[in-house]
Amino acid sequence: MNILILAASAQKASINKKLAGAIGQMIASEHKIDTPDFKAFSLPMYDGDIEQESGVPELAQALAARIQQADAVIICTPEYNGSIPGGLKNTLDWLSRLRPHPLVAKPVLLTGASPGALGSIRGLWHTRVPFEALGALVYPEMFGLSSAYDALDEQNGFKDARKSEQVNKLVNSFLAFAAALTKS
Ligand SMILES: Cc1cc2nc3c(=O)[nH]c(=O)nc-3n(C[C@H](O)[C@H](O)[C@H](O)COP(=O)(O)O)c2cc1C
Fold it and tell me: Strand pairing of 143-145 and 107-113?
């Protein structure tokens, strides 16, 4: 399958980029992986005047095309103030203005990494909301990587083998769910 893994962080040393790398490594031998650089898709704040004057920005359309090509999407997102980061929400708001918009019936797995003990899980519950509202098929289980600054090594491998096993199991059950949907 074609799997798009989006780390929703702009910063170079992002732990969510590292998590995306770790997940990508787990499945790269069996799937085609696309990892768009979130910063390369920086969009202006949603503004109805921009939309009326010049339509949905080309960058949003380009990201939508990448999502459309994917059989399944894995999100690795930071948690900001207990919720979805504004940049990701803004991107979803622009994507939602496209017809058809690219997330309808798209299988989506939500993951996140944070240095805290809760591993972004509060933010993931908020992140679910716009994805669900857009008609994405959000996998019931989510994964938050806690103490993330120390959890991954230089090669983006999990230092803790049990954590690696947990993520591997989750990602593969999500991909089985996505494959079943792709066939139906
Ligand atoms: C505006 C802002 C709000 C944040 N809020 C939270 C939070 O609510 N919970 C948390 O665990 N970490 C929070 N953090 C810390 C981030 O988890 C941390 O900066 C992390 O490295 C961001 O992910 P990234 O490295 O992938 O960019 C916040 C950081 C910023 C900049």
Answer: parallel
CA of 112 relative to ligand 1 center, distance in Å: 10
Domain extent listing, the chain = 2-183
16 lines ligand 1 (CB under 6 A): yes
Give, using CA atoms, the residue closest to atom 20 of ligand 1. Answer: 114
Q: What is the pTM of this model?
A: 0.98
135 lines ligand 1 (CB under 6 A): no
Q: pLDDT digits over 33-75, tens only?
A: 999 999 999 999 999 999 999 999 999 999 999 999 999 999 9
Q: Which two tokens stand for residue 5?
A: 């893994």
Q: Return d(Cα 145, Cα 114) in angstroms, integer.
A: 6
Domain 2-183 sits in CATH 3.40.50.360: yes
Find all residues with CB under 8 Å of 171, minimum gap 6, and list them: 23, 26, 27, 74, 109
Say if residues 85 and 114 touch (Cβ distance below 8 Å).
no
| Residue 27 Cβ contacting ligand 1 at under 6 Å | no
> Between β-strands 32-34 and 137-138, what pairing exists: parallel, antiparallel or unpaired?
unpaired
Residues, the chain: 184
Atom of ligand 1 nearest to the CA of 7: 26
- pLDDT tops 70 at residue 157: yes
